[in-house]
């Protein structure tokens, strides 16, 4: 019987990794050749987390899905830490790149196909067109860390966009105009339609409104999914730094573009301290 949304929410938010965690421990304890199965089991757990995260994003919000993913990747990382198992497996594959090159050369030199000397292209094809065996190491423990870092970066980027997305778009346009003004003195930022003081002031107001209305919700979600306050702090700090950095960049651009004191009063860009 398929899970309804209510059941799915209960399973995912109340300990999704309980079952994958138990299965993973069974794989570690009961198999003689542990490395391959443990690597495969860990990969399955990561994929389960990613799938559940996407489902939660669709049912609730992207922030919920991202924080769910971060939370359970942290749990998975903690679960595998005690096991003295090599999560690295060798994967063998065939590289056919030389076959392609040799085949192209064979077609180009068809006239020498049956030559009885050192220029016999058929012999050359057989010698140089052999597929190469490639050996690749797959480390699932590192893959978990890599996925965790990627998940955190996506969450930070998403939250930054939610809070200061409009301001960052303005900064990109303004920087482009300032570069043009270095070559063409007639191009002035404050003369651009999108950079009029009143419009810039509206962007600043929108960002301040976002911070007041949306930041608290993000923090509540972080407290819900991430019980550890230190983890919350580590994840929130770059979001805060990004917001402050955007306002600092705005302040610098206004100064470089030589906005008048009256224009600066209209824009009312807050300082880093504020």
User: What share of the residues does DSSP label as strand, in percent?
Assistant: 5-15%
- What structural class should be given to the helix and strand makeup? mainly alpha
Topology as a string of helices (H) and strands (E): HHHHEHHEHHHH
Query: Largest beta sheet, briefly?
Result: 2 strands, antiparallel
Distance between termini?
A: 54 Å
Uncertain stretches of 5 or more adjacent residues: 1-34
- Report strand order across the widest sheet: 1-2
| Helical segment count | 10
Shape: flat
* Fraction of residues in H or I helices: over 70%
Radius of gyration: 29 Å
- Write down how many β-strands occur, each being a DSSP E stretch of 2 or more residues: 2
Average pLDDT reading: 77
Describe the model.
By secondary structure, the chain is mainly alpha-helical. About 70% of the residues lie in helices and about 5% in strands. The protein has a two-stranded antiparallel ribbon. Helix 8 packs parallel to helix 10 (about 260-265). The radius of gyration is 29 Å and the shape is flat.
Would you kindly provide a brief summary of this structure?
By secondary structure, the chain is mainly alpha-helical. It has helices at 5-13, 18-30, 34-59, 62-80, 97-108, 121-128, 140-183, 197-225, 229-256, 261-267; strands spanning 88-95, 132-139. The radius of gyration is 29 Å and the shape is flat.
């Amino acid at each position: 019987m398929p899970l309804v949304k209510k059941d799915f929410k209960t399973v995912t938010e109340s300990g999704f990794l309980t079952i994958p965690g138990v299965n993973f421990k069974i794989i570690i304890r009961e198999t003689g050749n542990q490395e391959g199965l443990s690597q495969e089991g860990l990969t399955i757990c990561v994929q389960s987390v990613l799938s559940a995260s996407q489902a939660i994003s669709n049912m609730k919000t992207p922030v919920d899905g991202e924080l769910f993913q971060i939370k359970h990747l942290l749990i998975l990382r903690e679960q595998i830490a005690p096991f003295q198992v090599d999560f690295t497996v060798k994967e063998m594959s065939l590289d056919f790149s030389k076959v392609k090159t040799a085949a192209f050369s064979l077609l180009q030199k068809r006239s020498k196909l049956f030559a009885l000397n050192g220029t016999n292209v058929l012999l050359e094809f057989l010698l140089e067109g052999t597929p190469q065996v490639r050996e690749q190491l797959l480390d699932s423990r590192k893959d978990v860390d890599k996925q965790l870092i990627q998940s955190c970066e996506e969450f930070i980027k998403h939250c930054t966009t939610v809070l200061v997305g409009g301001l960052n778009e303005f900064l990109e346009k303004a920087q482009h105009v300032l570069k043009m003004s270095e070559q063409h003195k007639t191009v002035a930022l404050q003369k651009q339609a999108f950079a009029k003081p009143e419009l810039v002031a509206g962007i600043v107001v929108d960002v301040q409104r976002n911070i007041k209305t949306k930041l608290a919700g993000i923090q509540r979600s972080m407290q819900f999914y991430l019980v550890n306050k230190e983890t919350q702090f580590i994840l929130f700090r770059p979001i805060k730094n990004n917001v402050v950095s955007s306002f600092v960049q705005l302040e610098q651009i206004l100064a470089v573009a030589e906005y008048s004191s009256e224009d600066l009063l209209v824009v009312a860009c807050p300082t880093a301290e504020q």
